[in-house]
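2.7 Reproducibility. Because tokenized structures are sensitive to small changes in the input, we list the exact sequence used for Large ribosomal subunit protein bL36, including any N-terminal residues retained from the expression construct. No trimming or masking was applied before prediction.
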Amino acid sequence: MKVRTSLRALKARPGAQVVRRRGVTFVINKREPRFKARQG
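Resulting structure tokens (single pass, no recycling of outputs):
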């Protein structure tokens, strides 16, 4: 599955987690909640 460039940038941030739920990729960041994203 292709991951969007924006997700890749968010993934590098401290505290970021990449989660897949029901085929949708999410980036969740508990430490910095504004850095959230979804794809799919």
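DSSP finds one helix and three strands in the chain.
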